[in-house]
Amino acid sequence: MSEAFSTGDIVAASCRGHPVEGIYITDRDGMAVLKLGSGYNIGVDPATCTLVRKNGGTAVPTPVAVEQDESLPGFAIISTGGTIASKIDYRTGAVTSQFTADDILRAIPGLSSIGRYRAEVLATILSENMTPAIWQDLARSIHAAVRGGARGVIVTHGTDTMAYSASAVSYMLETPVPVVFVGSQRSADRPSSDNIMNAMCAAAAAGSDLGEVAVAMHATTNDDYCALHRGTRVRKMHTSRRDAFQSHDMAPIGRVDFPSLAVTLSDDAVRRGASALALRDRLEERCGLLAFYPGMAAEIVRAYEGYRGLVIAGTGLGHVSTGCIGAVRDLIDAGTTVVMTSQCLHGRVCDRVYDTGRDLLAAGVVEGEDMLPEAALTKLMWVLGNESDPEEVRRLMATDLKGEIRRRSEHGL
Amino acid sequence: MDYKALGLKAGIEIHQQLDTAEKLFCRCPTALRKTEEHTGEFFRYLHATVSEMGEIDRAAAEEMMDLRQFHYLTYDTTCLVENDEEPPAPMNQEALGIALTIARTFAMHPVEQVHTMRKLVIDGSNTSGFQRTALVAMGGVLPNGGVIETICLEEEAAQRVEGSTFSLDRLGIPLVEITTAPCMFTPEDVQGTAEYIGMVLRSTGKVKRGLGTIRQDINVSIREGARVEIKGVQELDLIAEVVRREAQRQMNLLAIRDELLARHAAVGQETHDVTALFAGTKSSILKKAKAILAVVLHGYAGMVGREIQPGRRLGSEISDYVKKCGLGGIFHTDELPAYGVTADEVESLRRHLGVADEDAVILIAGDRKKTECGAKQVRHRARLALEGVPEETRKMLEEGSTAYMRPLPGAARMYPETDVFPVAITGTLWDAVGVPELLSDLAARFETDYGLDAALAHQVAYSESLPLFRAAVDAGIRPNLAARTVLATLKELGRDGVAVERLAPAEILAVLQAVEDETVAKEAVPEILTGIAAGTPVADAIGAHAGGMSDTDLAALVQTIVADRIEFVREKGMRALGPLMGLVMEEARGKVDGKKVSEALRQEISRVI
Fold first, then answer.
1. Which parts of the sequence belong to the Asn/Gln amidotransferase domain (chain B) (predicted)?
2. How far from A257 is each of A228, B47, B79, CA to CA, in Å?
3. Which pairs count as long-range contacts for B94-97, CB under 8 Å and 24+ apart, including other chains?
4. In A, which residues are within 8 Å of B129 by CB distance?
């Protein structure tokens, strides 16, 4: 039986009566997966497999040491996992995050001509497994790297929740140097992966005149340039396209051309050295984000009882149904700060136009201005982590801290 | 040429596009488009990646020597999967079914669980940098005793428009790759086998037809030679010639090797910068080059310029390798003075390098980085000449000679496509797969069942119009009329500029039915079809030619014509039939069946004589 085999063993088997021989890879769905001499994998009945010879212990090639040019500026790469740092497990077929930051340098040799790097693996997770506790660790690691002299910090991250992490770090950290989040939409094992261009553009941005938290990702479907998005104004807008990341209600704060790696910053971008390094890493984790939908039961709102904060992504200008307003009022009366944002994503909340909005205001809801729901959530976590006076919390939530609120809405989307 | 004595061995890979509704891994139609219909374009770079076994494939590594930007044209019939911006859909079951039908026809063994693999191809023809391919069945037999090793289901690559621009309409169309063992020993064997496999594929009725829908890769070696894979031979008639020319190339390369070894030839280790020597040159290529490098090949004089295939020399082979560095080619002393390089310049080059008469010098001109890469390639290929025939992937040139493309890829270029789940071929599924009637059998049956002559039967069976012919016969149309219409009439009309592609099968059938019902004469078919193709409704087109001449009218016409020429008829007797036929047809064409006219005439003549 195939349990006796280990990966790399040479195995003979029968494929509906036709003899085959191949390298045993794994057992999957009750079938033995063999790699034939042609490179093709096939699944065969494990009962027909017999051992030809044990795996001779083929030497795994030793990774080449990454050479660093000491004359180049020093950067920190902090790896959290995600597609950009992922590797296929060919046995299970799943994509997992198991690259170290050194592996990234090895996989993207072009990085070594931009700077020298100190690499740190903070986590090796897919981004849906990210937690506020890891955001805090991340902010501390970035803080330590900058204090240690890093000219810029690159954070490799899964794209699905990268916007949350970038906004969370924006609030927790005052940074005089660029902190650039980067990911990839197509896995590193394919020749067409966007990881090389994104990573090189992120490194160029990390060496630029920027002085805030940004996300560097493909701006178009071409391999032509990366946009630099403000950490609190960016959202993943497509499940799979490489230009999924877009700034909302403001233009990107910069761009990095490829392959020239020329960096251009907008007038809006905070410049290098504009802030003094500081870390305020407290977060209130008992905060939620709720998308209202037609017919939503008030019980769902009530489920957030005991939470210190709740962001609602309401309809249009910022509404929930009349039937939910009582539950919202009860939450607020019990001490929960409720912030209203819009599931429109573009545009500003205004609860003074329709009756339900006025009722929400009367109940004590905070208008979330033009904040993205996820940036409002991380902000609420940070504000509640650092401030206990309810009025001060309301004031801070309505105040622009890290570019998450724009005082005026410019034309267009 | 005694190919058996030469130790010729050949195998073929046949790539045939399948005629499915949707592509292999997305839901786009399998429609080919005109490039001017494209709705968008984008560009990308590709980078070689390490395989699951931790190696970079040598063919992929070579493609990476020059970082190239690839452009792609998109259409309203292509989607994000072709753009490499969305994970693939599950494998198209219709395509798998056709592959299994073909497998069954060759008596192959299907694999129990099909795994989709990624085959690295980074020449730009796949936006992802790999081609998805899956082994479906193994171990088939050919009537001549040959062996089919495997049948794979693959996605078609994007078609090159020009340079590094590709069109995405073709990318992802399902195709089967049928690989034979190296079981052929003469050029004619190879061609015959390709013809047979092609016939079997067409027998399914589910493969695409037309130029470019079937391509053959041919693997050839001779004793002491090496396996060479020649890609993309589209014309069946050229296959034997390609094999002959490859055998000739390998023989000549072996002869060059023997000569070089006898001369104790060696490749110079040094690369010489000779840019300054050509400061005042009249050669336009050398004049604009930023750097000119020279490599000395000791003992190679006369060999670099020796022809190894019609129009191809060892120098051409070296030049192909140098092109990988993004250069146009090389100059070598076997061909100089030429191309604006003077005899004096050659002499001073030889003097400067201190080379002897039996040495050859290769010049590489261009920008510095590319020429350094080029010099390395020159030494590499020149060294291979000392070993004989390198293993290579080659592309076919016009007439059947070939040029180097890249090294033969290894298994290292294949790794699992983890975004597509394996597909089980269950016993129930396999048992349900039917075997189509082979076109060769069909042709024989048309002869016996329908009384078609052998040539016509063969023509119909192998024609793209076979489904139309079958529909017509099933509808009760006489096989001869159906065959002549779908083969000859439509072809002739097309040649005369009639838009026959606008004719729907149902319209053609309606016209043939009208002939069978004797509503119109069969002579009227071309005119009626011409009318329909021009936009006349079918009923109107038929109506315009219907009921043209009753039996009574025909009899009257025949009587008049015979009576007018009664002397002639009495003199010639039945031999008057031919000349009079023409006269009657002038009046009756398109209104009465010619057979009927002939019969009426015969009766009238025999009545009067």
1. 467-605
2. 11, 18, 26
3. B94/B20, B94/B21, B94/B22, B95/B18, B95/B20, B95/B24, B95/B153, B95/B174, B96/B136, B96/B153, B96/B423, B96/B425, B97/B433
4. 190-192
Q: What's the distance, Cα to Cα, between the start and end of chain A in Å?
A: 62
Of B46, B415, B430, the CB nearest to A192: B46
Q: Is the pLDDT of residue A56 over 80?
A: no
Domain boundary among A231, A250, A279: A279
Q: What is the pLDDT of residues A286-307, one digit of tens each?
A: 999 999 999 999 999 999 999 9
CATH number, residue A141: 3.40.50.1170
B229 domain-assigned: yes
Contacts of residue A357, Cβ cutoff 8 Å, sequence gap at least 6: A317, A318, A319, A350, A351
Q: Which of B87, B139, B430 is facing A240, going by the closest CB pair?
A: B87
Residues in Cβ contact with B254 at an 8 Å cutoff, skipping those fewer than 6 apart: B224, B225, B388, B389
Minimal Cα distance from A60: which residue of B?
B54
Supply the pLDDT for residue A2. 43
* Best B26, B43, B53, B408 residue to mutate vs chain A (most A CBs within 10 Å): B53
Same domain? A25 vs A162: no
Report CA A79 to chain centroid distance, whole Å.
Answer: 11
B182 touches chain A (CB under 8 A): no
CB contact under 8 A, A40 and B47: no
Q: Which of A192, A223, A241 to mutate to test the interface with B (most CBs of B within 10 A)?
A: A192
Which residues in chain B have their CB less than 8 angstroms from residue A223's CB?
43-45, 69
Q: Which helix (H) or strand (E) holds A362?
A: helix A355-363
> What are the pLDDT digits (tens) for B180-216?
999 999 999 999 999 999 999 999 999 999 888 999 9
Contact A209, A272 (CB under 8 A): yes
In chain B, residues with a C-beta closer than 8 Å to the C-beta of A60 are 54
Cβ contact, residue pair A40, B129, below 8 Å? no
Could you say which of B254, B274, B300 is where a domain stops? Answer: B254
Report chain B residues whose CB lies below 8 A from the CB of A94. 418
Q: Do A181 and A249 fall into the same domain?
A: yes
Q: Do B113 and A44 touch (CB under 8 A)?
A: yes
Compare CB distances from B112 to A31, A36, A196 and report the shortest one's residue: A31
Question: Quick check: helix, strand or coil at residue B215?
Answer: strand
Residue range(s) defining the domain that contains residue A291: 287-398
- The alpha carbon of residue A388 and the mean position of all alpha carbons in its chain are separated, in whole angstroms, by 29
DSSP conformational letter for B455: H
Q: Which residue has the tokens 């251009």?
A: A264
> Least CB-CB distance to A61: which of B54, B118, B134?
B54
Residues B304-317 have pLDDT tens digits of 999 999 999 999 99
ipTM computed for the complex: 0.91
Instruction: Say what angle helices B368-387 and B239-262 make with each other, to 10 degrees.
Output: 90
Catalogue the active-site residues of A: 83, 159-160, 236
Measured from the Cβ of residue A326, the count of other Cβ atoms closer than 10 Å reads 14
Determine whether the interchain pair B128/A61 forms a contact, defined as Cβ–Cβ distance below 8 Å: no
Q: What is the pLDDT of residues B254-269, one digit of tens each?
A: 999 999 999 999 999 9
Identify any residues that bridge with B116 across adjacent strands, giving them in sequence order. Answer: B134
| pLDDT tens column, A100-157 | 656 777 778 788 889 999 888 898 888 899 999 999 999 999 999 999 999 999 999 9
Residue B600 within a domain? yes
> Is B139's CB within 8 Å of A40's CB?
no
Give the residue from B493, B526, B544 where a domain finishes: B544
**Is residue B442 less than 8 Å (CB to CB) from chain A?**
no
Question: Which two tokens mark A143?
Answer: 């803080």
Residues B385 and B249 in one domain: no
Tokens 């996605």: give the residue.
B155
